[in-house]
Design a protein that fits this description.
It is built from 15 helices and no strands. It is an all-alpha fold and 418 residues long.
Length: 418
């Protein structure tokens, strides 16, 4: 509670008024009409928000808790009055929260506006959220989500932060965060294939799986293309989209470990991703009439999380960081590019993440990072082309390899020009 009215009080009051009206409009549409209508609507929520802002701004000791108690009592009376007609507490809790958002708007208008918009969105999405929780989300997917939340909110904060010399100067917390991210991507790909159907789900799954391993995705889809020749086109499109994910993850890794490095790589990565996506999806536009019954969506009872793969990627990141750091110190740029190329034979993500960590530590120049990232993707693209030929045959390899090489060429061109 302030002892004097701040100069930006009008802004806080305006935000509180707008937030109250926004939430009140949504509740007004829900409360119904006539004698059976709800107790709180547009005017009530607007007044509650303004009350919160005024209680914070006026130089009256204890006015904020008194107002909170009054709003809470009003909510209890409204709930008691509704009886069995409305067993939920959403409106009453929303009214009290709106009062608190009004208080917050007087302290920090921007944060108050964000909280108000978020609450209004949450209330408006009631039916969609209910359908998501009861119909779309399976029991196993809920279990996977709770496990991911526990890892992100409990385990991850316990990981020590700060660069470790024995880890090549890498901060272990981003490595742990990468494990959680990979597990989240696995869950997302699983649900995309199950919810979106065979065709869209396969394309989405190919893109999401590319964040884990584009090479493995190309190999897996290639084997299915041999077994299901009628679906070779959509499978090749999904495999090509895994190449788009490679470029996207290069930016994600760079942004997480060294934002300046990601910004330098952004033009080349965007050009390469766009070229790969267009080349991979364009042939499918003339094949929409083909059926997709042969592709089965994953079962909702099977867990999508594969912790071994995520931990293996994190371990590989650490090993590659040591190799890249040693090669750069011992042999300079030539040794750096050679070590990056060797590591990228299996996976392009690891050397890119390692170089981003070195860039963040100040031991690698920005130009070296960009060139090293392009070398890593280039070598890995050759690997994926070879895998596509072996796993899916020449026609599959031509579609996938053509998209990957086109995107790679655009990436190099943009990097050399800009």
């Amino acid at each position: 509670m302030n002892t004097s009215i701040p100069p930006d009080a009008p802004i806080g009051l305006a935000v509180a008024l707008g937030v109250g009206m926004l939430i009140g409009i949504e509740r007004e549409r829900r409360k119904g009409e006539g004698t059976e209508s709800g107790a709180a609507g547009l005017r009530t929520f607007t007044v509650a928000a303004l009350c919160g802002a005024l209680a914070q701004l006026l130089p009256v000791p204890g006015l904020v808790p008194v107002g909170a108690a009054f709003i809470g009592l009003a909510g209890i009376l409204a709930y008691w009055k509704s009886g069995e007609d409305d067993p939920g507490l959403t409106t009453e809790l929303a009214l009290f929260t709106t009062y608190l958002i009004g208080v917050q708007s007087a302290i920090a208008p921007t944060l108050g506006a964000a909280c108000g918009a978020g609450l209004a969105l949450l209330l408006a999405m009631r039916r969609r959220l209910h359908r998501f929780a009861t119909q779309l989300l399976s029991e196993q997917e809920l279990h996977d989500g709770l496990l991911l939340a526990a890892l992100a909110l409990i385990v991850l904060p316990l990981i020590p932060a700060g660069p470790l010399p024995w880890l090549g100067g890498i901060d272990p917390r981003p490595l742990a965060a990468m494990v959680v991210l990979i597990l989240a991507i696995q869950a997302g790909g699983h649900m995309a294939a199950r919810w979106l159907g065979a065709r869209a789900g396969m394309l989405g799954s190919g893109f999401v799986s590319g964040f884990i391993s584009s090479t493995a995705t190309v190999a897996s889809f290639g084997g299915r293309a041999k077994a299901q020749p009628g679906q070779a086109g959509v499978l090749a499109g999904g495999a090509a989209l895994s190449g788009v994910a490679t470029w996207a993850q290069a930016l994600v890794l760079g942004a997480a470990l060294s934002p300046a490095a990601a910004l330098a790589l952004l033009p080349a990565a965007l050009a390469a991703a766009a070229g790969t996506a267009v080349a991979g999806l364009l042939p499918l536009l003339s094949r929409r009439a083909r059926g997709s019954d042969a592709i089965e969506a994953p079962a909702s009872t099977r867990s999508a999380l594969r912790p071994r793969e995520a931990l293996a990627v994190a371990a590989l990141l650490a090993v590659v960081a040591l190799v890249v750091s040693y090669a750069q110190d011992r042999f300079g740029e030539a040794g750096l590019l050679i070590s990056v190329a060797i590591a990228a034979l299996a996976d392009a993500h690891s050397p890119i993440a390692s170089m981003a960590s070195l860039h963040a530590a100040g031991t690698m120049a920005t130009e070296r990072f960009v060139h090293g990232a392009l070398v890593a993707v280039s070598v890995n693209t050759l690997t994926r082309c070879a895998v596509a030929t072996i796993a899916g045959g020449p026609r599959y390899a031509l579609r996938v390899g053509g998209a990957l090489l086109l995107g790679l060429g655009l990436g190099w061109a943009v990097a050399l020009l800009f």
